[in-house]
């Protein structure tokens, strides 16, 4: 299987998703073998980050290095000619001369799609505004499979800023390919966009609520997210909602024994630090999944493995 770009989870069918997860597993198993360093040997990844990032950028870079490739790029557009007024199109036309694959994160929705239309080399979306974050979703699915051995049959709650959070937009869509029950828990005003619910509600059972406590005893996965402060048009609105939910030991009292808490990170105050040492916390193992899954995506779009 081969695909050129990774822009939106909507471009992926279940078969493609399963192929990425299988490839990630294979590469994770090959990590200590010499041959893995041959896969992307001589290839260059360009990481263009117009928004802050820790995990996404560094795990892509780690993935490329582990495949034997090399990395160029920027973590801050203010140090590039964008500052002088260069357009995204011209930036992409330039960078594609230096690299074999581009990973881009941009505050504007649709920016990655535009980059893919301009570029002749593969483009991977590392987050475009509040829209999509498909590679995060793939690593989230990989993590769920690793933790439970399956995705089917699970009850999965997505908690937090479901309006502006791009990770949950992509994840909700991908989960609708599986036999799961979904709970969307959001503070008032930050609910999952209607168009996403409409897209998936005939495929998957959804319960919408703003009552975290009542949902906790039912679920197998609690996927928490940060309120996306930077996307609020009005800071006063953010101040009203901030701190409106928090996962702590007390609220976890009624949780299922096998509950796994996930989070794309960064966390601000959604998960109290005391939860880290409980068996519920899976979020730092989830961080690791970024490496094999991004190794798989890079290998596939570069066409360097079968
Ligand atoms: C997320 C993002 O950038 O959308 N972070 C990530 O990639 N792991 C989540 C967030 O910023 O809240």
UniProtKB/TrEMBL annotation:
GO terms for biological process: 'de novo' pyrimidine nucleobase biosynthetic process; 'de novo' UMP biosynthetic process; amino acid metabolic process. It comes from the Archaea. Carbamoyl phosphate binds at residues 55-56, 105, 133, 136, 265-266. Gene3D superfamilies: Aspartate/ornithine carbamoyltransferase. Pathway: Pyrimidine metabolism; UMP biosynthesis via de novo pathway; (S)-dihydroorotate from bicarbonate: step 2/3. One of its GO terms (molecular function) is aspartate carbamoyltransferase activity. Keywords: Pyrimidine biosynthesis, Transferase. Its EC number is 2.1.3.2. Residues 152-300 form the Aspartate/ornithine carbamoyltransferase Asp/Orn-binding domain. Residues 5-145 form the Aspartate/ornithine carbamoyltransferase carbamoyl-P binding domain. L-aspartate binds at residues 84, 166, 226. It catalyses: carbamoyl phosphate + L-aspartate = N-carbamoyl-L-aspartate + phosphate + H(+). It is an enzyme of class 2 (transferase). The keyword Cell membrane does not apply. PANTHER family: ASPARTATE CARBAMOYLTRANSFERASE (PTHR45753:SF6), ORNITHINE CARBAMOYLTRANSFERASE, MITOCHONDRIAL (PTHR45753). Heterooligomer of catalytic and regulatory chains. Belongs to the aspartate/ornithine carbamoyltransferase superfamily. ATCase family. Catalyzes the condensation of carbamoyl phosphate and aspartate to form carbamoyl aspartate and inorganic phosphate, the committed step in the de novo pyrimidine nucleotide biosynthesis pathway. HAMAP family: Asp_carb_tr. This is Aspartate carbamoyltransferase.
């Amino acid at each position: 299987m081969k695909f050129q770009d990774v822009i939106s989870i909507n471009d992926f069918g279940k078969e493609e998703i399963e192929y990425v997860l299988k490839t990630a597993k294979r590469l994770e198993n090959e990590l200590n073998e010499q041959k893995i360093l041959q896969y992307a040997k001589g290839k260059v990844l360009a990481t263009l980050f117009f928004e802050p990032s820790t995990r996404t950028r560094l795990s892509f870079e780690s993935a490329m290095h582990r495949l034997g490739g090399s990395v160029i790029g920027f973590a801050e557009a203010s140090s590039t000619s964008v500052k002088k007024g260069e357009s995204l199109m011209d930036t992409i036309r330039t960078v594609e001369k230096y690299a074999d694959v581009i990973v881009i994160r941009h505050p504007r929705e649709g920016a990655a799609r535009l980059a893919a239309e301009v570029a002749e080399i593969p483009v991977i979306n590392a987050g475009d505004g509040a829209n999509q974050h498909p590679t995060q979703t793939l690593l989230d699915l990989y993590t769920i499979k690793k933790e439970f051995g399956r995705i089917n049959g699970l009850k999965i709650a997505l908690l937090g800023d479901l309006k502006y959070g791009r990770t949950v937009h992509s994840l909700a869509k991908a989960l609708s390919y599986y036999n799961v029950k979904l709970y969307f828990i959001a503070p008032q005003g930050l609910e999952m966009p209607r168009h996403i619910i409409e897209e998936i509600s005939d495929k998957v059972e959804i319960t919408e609520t703003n009552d975290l406590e009542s949902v906790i005893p039912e679920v197998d996965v609690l996927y928490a997210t940060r309120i996306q402060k930077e996307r609020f048009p009005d800071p006063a609105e953010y101040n009203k909602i901030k701190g409106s939910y928090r996962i702590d030991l007390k609220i976890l009292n009624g949780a299922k024994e096998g509950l796994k808490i996930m989070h794309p990170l960064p966390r601000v105050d959604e998960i109290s630090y005391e939860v880290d040492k409980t068996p519920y916390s899976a979020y730092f193992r989830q961080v690791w999944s970024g490496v094999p899954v991004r190794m798989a995506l890079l290998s596939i779009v570069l066409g360097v493995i079968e």
